Amino acid sequence: MAADGETLSGIPRMALDTERFDPADRLPAWQAYNEPTIEIDAIEDWNTGFNAKVTAWRTDRTLFTKLSCHPPADMHYSLRIRPTGHEYLVLRLGTYGAMRGLLGDGPVSFEQGDIQLFDFQKQLHAISGGVDQISAYFPYDTVGYDPRRDGPQITLCADSAMGRVVTSILQTTFQQLDTVN
């Protein structure tokens, strides 16, 4: 795998910065980094100018990621989640950019400042001009999610009362993850 890994105070951390690669190797490096859990299909050729940075921390069955993905133009892509033994919900805060597309059979959109909780087992077909986001991935059973009962996504505005609470929790968590020695 083309990534750096280390453990900070017992919290496993992985990182990848595609700027380390020649432009033609950046998308394949990104796909290889994500290969264990996510299959990414590029609908367009992203090799010219594509850049992505990700840092991920895993604690027990919860995953935290900080992502910055910036193609030279709007990118069309499809994500499929590989079976991992756990079904995940994602809680993410967008700090830059936007995305729109389909999550499973329904429409999905994500704007800068949105907080989104969505079922990561659903296939995502999307278009984006680049995003920065922080995310926490939780197994269904840790949050009581049941896809037969609950909808595949919820979006909160970061300026709402609940949005401010969730934003604060996510930002504080990532500040701590960034500084753990």
Give me the Rg, rounded: 16 Å
The oligomeric status of these chains comes to: single chain
Q: Can you give the helix content as a percent range?
A: 10-25%
Shape: globular
H/E element order: EEHEEEEEEEEHEH
Mean pLDDT: 82
N- and C-termini, Cα separation:
24 Å
The count of helical stretches stands at 3
Structural class: alpha+beta
Tell me about this structure.
The chain is α+β, with helices and mostly antiparallel strands. It has three helices and eleven strands; from the N terminus they run E-E-H-E-E-E-E-E-E-E-E-H-E-H. It has helices at 23-34, 140-143, 161-179; strands at 4-8, 11-17, 38-42, 51-59, 62-70, 75-81, 88-103, 106-111, 114-119, 124-139, 153-157. Strands 1, 2, 3, 4, 5, 6, 7, 8, 9, 10 and 11 form an eleven-stranded antiparallel β-sheet that branches. The chain is globular, with a radius of gyration of 16 Å. The model has no long low-confidence stretch (mean pLDDT 82).
